[in-house]
Design goal:
The chain is mainly alpha-helical. It is 48% helix and 0% strand. The radius of gyration is 22 Å and the shape is globular. The chain starts with a helix and ends in a 7-residue tail after the last helix.
Length: 210
């Protein structure tokens, strides 16, 4: 009996050693190999990030991280949109292809020369508005209502209302709090995933829900 109990204890110790979590470096290597991210489980935008990954909007880096709560840069946003648009270009550098494509397509002048700059909600909507043809729809008739409804509408850059209100009407962005549209608010990488999936659905003729 004593030998049997000793054997059970030994098995329990061995099982505990083998069932623990992998070291972070090994977990990252497996995530990169499996095409998944290691830092999005339980995140509010987990589904949107995974859907964007499935659509080819993003690639899994060598460290396996998406970094959903970090600010999205202009480069991040343009690269995702470039992937969605068929990845045009012949450079070996994907980001350079995306930047060249954006310049050739005459995206808004507010896109900075430095792709590492964080992107604002206004800038993101200006890019998508242009990508979608730059034509207002029903939301143009609601401009006065939106002007009065958003307490920070005076902060919208000159000429930026069409794109921002278009984005709000099509549920690409929502109020950050009641009556606040936050045109200069920074877009996180998780927010970027949500915006891009909503845009893809709208572009395909589907209707995202608020």
């Amino acid at each position: 009996m004593r030998q049997f109990l000793t054997l059970l204890c030994l098995l329990a110790v061995l099982t505990g050693c083998t069932s623990g979590a992998l070291p972070e470096s090994e977990s990252a290597e497996l995530s990169a190999a499996d095409g998944t991210f290691i830092d999005i489980a339980g995140h509010p935008m987990e589904y949107e990030i995974l859907e964007g990954l499935e659509l080819g909007l993003y690639r899994v880096p060598s460290d396996g991280r998406f970094r959903p709560d970090e600010p999205a840069t202009h480069g991040d946003f343009l690269l995702a949109l470039w992937n969605f648009s068929g990845r045009p270009g012949d450079s070996a550098n994907e980001l350079q292809n995306a930047l060249d494509w954006a310049a050739d397509t005459e995206y808004p002048d507010n896109v900075p020369a430095t792709p590492d700059d964080p992107i604002t909600r206004q800038e993101a909507m200006s890019i998508l508005y242009t990508h979608n043809g730059g034509v207002s729809g029903v939301e143009a008739m609601l401009t006065g209502i939106y002007d009065n409804g958003f307490r920070d509408s005076a902060q919208i850059p000159p000429g930026g209302k069409a794109a921002l209100y278009w984005g709000f009407y099509n549920v690409l962005i929502r109020e950050t709090e009641p009556g606040i549209i936050s045109p200069s608010g920074t877009v996180s990488r998780g927010d970027m995933a949500d915006i891009m999936i909503r845009y893809v659905n709208m572009f395909r003729g589907e209707s995202p829900e608020n």
